[in-house]
Amino acid sequence: MRRVELADVVDELAAVEREPAWWHGVYAALDGADAEALGALPVPLADDRLVRGPRGVLIADGVDPAGLGALGLRFVHPDAVHPLLRRLGAVEAGPRAVLADPAVRAAVAESFDAAEPEAVAEAVLGLVAAGPVDPGDEPWLAELALPGDDGELYPAGELLLPGSPLREVMADDAPFGVVEDEVLEKWGAETLAAAGVLDGFALARGEDVDLTALADEAETLDLDDEDRWADDVLRRIGPQDLPPAVPELLAVRDLELVDDWGAALRLLAEPPWRAAIVEPAHVVLHTGRRAAVPSYTAWWLGRRPVLDGRRPREFRLPGDDSLAGLYDVAPDGPDERLLTALGVRTSLDDLLDEPGGARELLERLADPARDVARDRLGALWTALADVPGLDVDPPERVRAVVDGGVEVVDAGDALVLDRPDLLPLLAGQPLVIAARGREERLAELLDLPLASDEVPGEVEGGAERPVPEAVRAVLPDAPGLYLAHDRLTVDGTDVQWWVGDGHVHADGPAGLARALAWATGEWEARLRAEAVLRDPGALPVLRAESDLDG
User: 480-518: b or e for each residue (b if 16 or more CB lie within 10 Å)?
Assistant: First the structure.
């Protein structure tokens, strides 16, 4: 008897043509032999081919290989299946495992050019139905060629279910078809949706999205203006030593095709699309920390006229009056969280915290069509002056106080008020006024002169007198002496008080109270000081009233 090596036996078996059940017997006989020598063992497939080597071939588990021939998969013939094949690298494959096979992805990607696109669609949809697969689990399925009700083939991701609300919100020229009735009846809406057919907006998902590559268009998620979003995020987070990435990205597709934004926002406010708007994107920085930034979908919507034909950033939420007059109240409909995510303004502080927010506030203040109440203007200028490190181009026009009213004027005509004793000398002069201590910062920010630099401030005379002791209960740091005037004039104009030369000048109790309050840094106490100067006996009542202030 001739003795041969096992590997030689395996080579000779490659030329044998037998029924699949015969191969099952061969595998039983070889079970337990050296696996390395059996690496090229022939395997009969369900499509009648014979291949060398069990590694990577599929053993059907809950699927019918006969129905998957159009996908080019390598299934072991059911009659030949034996545990030896599993030990040698064959893979038991249920519906989800089959879907994960590269051959299936390739078949889907090439389904438009397949000899029988219907057969590819039947095989893939069968796997999806048996999976089961949820919508969005396998986004590449959206490339599967499926028939529309007009007889044309479409990618699944460009087909709508007949009852899809997208039919009502999309523009007439949107590149969507409606799935064929016969396909819908056979597979059902759930399976088709899992394969990418749209019942609502399509969702894009990405993992470890490199923002630098996205901004440079070296990578793509096929989202409108995705590079501009990435640019905006990179500006927000600042320079990084390593390319920043978004570990998990969720975005709504095809927003650029919407025509009816009222209906579209009602749809987007519901799951699963809502999360793509209201949940921020998280960027991993080079330090390992994460920064929350507006999601792509919120960013995109925030820059389009999606609220009553206007951008969300042109509105403010009701309830906070810090931006009243500068922004209109948002229209009814979307809830507050959704409006906030879209960029509807929430408060003055939040606006100034946002990149470019200060510039936008200056632009709105300079818009004559905006109506800002006199009692709000000072708080707006004060808030701008308090923004740390703010550096903006000085505006050409500013909103100023003119004789008690408010007007938008050329910046070259305005002054920043730095002392209230200047007011009688500035009649008709446009003044930018903020809370005390901000005048120099505001003048620098707006590139405007201080009022005191434009007023000569010539004052004459005055008799030195002691400051009444009673006023120290209100202004304990008041100086001991002041210069009293029967008629106080500065630059030829009658005034009640003056501190521009470093001395306290006053004409009567009202002027003295203001001069002392300003000189001691207790400007808010001027009215109580005046009351004490006029009637020292009123001090107990004034103190009791002050106790009620908390």
Answer: eebbbbeebbbeeeebbbbbbeebbbbbbbbbbbbbbbb
